[in-house]
Amino acid sequence: MIGKLDETLDFQASALKLRGYRQQLLASNLANADTPNYKAVDFNFAESMKAATSAPGGQVAPAPLQITSPAHLRGIASAPPGVRVQFRGALQTSIDGNSVDLDAERAQFADNAVRYEAAVRFLNGQIRDLTTAMKGE
Amino acid sequence: MSLFNVFEIAGSGLSAQSQRLNVVASNLANAESTTGANGEVYRARQVVFSTTSVANAGAESSGVRVSGVIEDQAPLRRQFDPKHPMADAQGYVTFPNVNVVEEMVNMISASRSYQTNVDMMNTAKNLLLKTLSLGS
Q1: Do residues B97 and B77 make contact, with C-beta atoms less than 8 angstroms apart?
Q2: Tell me: the pLDDT tens digits for A13-37?
Q3: Cβ B5–A27 below 8 Å, yes or no?
Q4: What is the ipTM of this complex?
Q5: pLDDT score of A93
Q6: Radius of gyration, CA atoms only, chain A
Q7: 0.95 cut: is pTM over it?
Q8: Residues 6 or more apart from A38 whose CB is under 8 A from it?
Q9: How near does any CA of chain A get to the CA of B63, in Å?
Q10: Between residues 16 and 75 of chain B, which touch chain A (CB distance below 8 Å)?
């Protein structure tokens, strides 16, 4: 029973996690809008969402990086499993090698924030439905 | 939690952009300074931005920092003014190579970027607060 309850909320929970991560990537793009040679990054949300929800148990465990020397990168598993971060194709390249299009990034940032909030509302609705069913009023 | 990293990233952006604004202010204030602190003519300064890693944010997303301040090596402006106390033997005064128009553009750009970072922080804050009230 608990497993089923968990599964109900799992989809929106993964969506929330991915939206949160995308917000972080877009923030990085916006903060580095004036940094020479910075390349804008993003990921395919639909693809990552499919990977996150289709795996057994809902979650793919991230492969740990083997560290054999202190100079090796820690490889902090910040990206949620199933996410493939890619460089964004630049619409207009600038002479300093920066590929951030401020307008496009801002639009994406606002869009992603709204979708994050939508996921929060869906989750809220589901929780409300479940509590209503439990109370039996 | 990814949204907390947005605060760190936007915070790094805020400090970098305000440092850029500082440099612009210094350039504009000294646009006519014929003598700098080191006895030489003031030269326009520019900040250099570079990415910086944010703790717990991973390698894909990064903040921004000022990695250095460079002095503009463009030729200094020379103006004929024999009555000026700093005039040389030929009657020319050497002024800083500050381009006021360029600096104003730089200032507007820095202020816009600063605003963007503030907006980012606000959005992240709102989203986090909404998430905190989940299920209530």
Answers
A1: yes
A2: 889 999 999 999 999 999 999 999 9
A3: yes
A4: 0.86
A5: 79
A6: 19
A7: no
A8: A32, A97, A98, A99, A100, B51, B62
A9: 6
A10: 16-17, 20, 48-51, 56-64
